[in-house]
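Look over what follows to help learners.
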Amino acid sequence: MTRLIAFLSKHRRPLFVGILFLILANAFALAIPWVLKEAIDALKGPPPGSLTRYAFFLVVLAALQGLFRFLGRWTLIGAAREIEYELRNQLFRHLLRLPSSFYQKIRTGDLMARATQDVNTIRMLLGAGLMYSANTLLVYGASVTLMLKIDPLLTLVALLSYPLLFLAMKKVRQGIHDRFEEVQEQLARLSDKAQENLSGIRVVKASSLEQDEVKSFARLNDDYVQKNLRLAKVESFSQPLASLAGGLGMAAILWLGGRKVIEGSLTLGGLVAFNTYLGMLLWPTLAMAWIANLYERGRVSMERIEALLKEEPTIGDEEGMVEMEALGGDIEFHSLTFAYQHDGRRPALKEIDLKIPRGTKVALVGPTGSGKSTFLALIPRLLEVPNGHLFIDDLEITRIPLAVLRGSIGYVPQESFLFSDTIRENIAF
């Protein structure tokens, strides 16, 4: 979560302003029950002329609360959107820096799920999650303080069930974490299946495999639904637990508080205000369950994003690069042997010696799997070249800046690919 903290630190100003707006919104909201208490207690005396004043105060407080709550939400959600934008750009830049070998060991659908849904989940954690977390802390702190001011014993009785609620929520959080991880992994498999079929639609149709692929996709989709239902089952415990805690507290207050009003140790206005503050705890208590859900989802998503960002590019510029702007074009292979990391059976190329002078035309001929594509991919360093075996203009290829090397080579792979753009843009790419 270190990277997430760095993003929060970068956007600390709007986050601070947003939380300040929330503090003001809650201050005005918490003042309303106290004004109501004073108004009700004032009814015991002669007909008061101050009721109009109390009503005016209530309207003003409600309006100010609404204004600052809007400003707080707008500021915090806006900051979360900015972080989402930066994180998605950072992830995309990093993915483009990774070598071809990385994409041979990870599914495209998995990458798509991480770049879209996982980033969205993190944005929800930083936006709504942070906003409701701050709101919950503020409301709990201020409401409990005011409840203690009205009646300490009543406060203790009202909150008696809450420690058990927090223990139960801890267990629910762990269940959410484990099941959401399963959901995201299954979504990656589902996305990968869709991507493979759409990319290879000609092969699927030519082989008349549409029905087989539909059944295969349906099985993956069913697994995805089942995993989501398991997650929903765990999440569904949260709100009933919070409602139960609030309901028990309310019932205890009606019984004990009513007796105190009858005895005269508590005013009617005080009981109304106390019940209102206790009622104000109900939504933050329910939100606590939602926040725990968001936090666990966000933590899983951030772990998945971090795993990608920790992947280091294995091909890049190193120390000792030769400064140049272009290449002449003489290519020479010296006893080059190359094996893929994931293939321990035999090398793809073995003891290749070849010199290709500038301007020469060379055709590579061989059966499928003989290493022609591998041979060509080594020249622009799409695959990492063993040191001391490939030279261009008498320079070892690893000493040539990558931008210069690839900018000097026209590489047309055997797999045809069209971007989702015009023919003109595809030709110009």
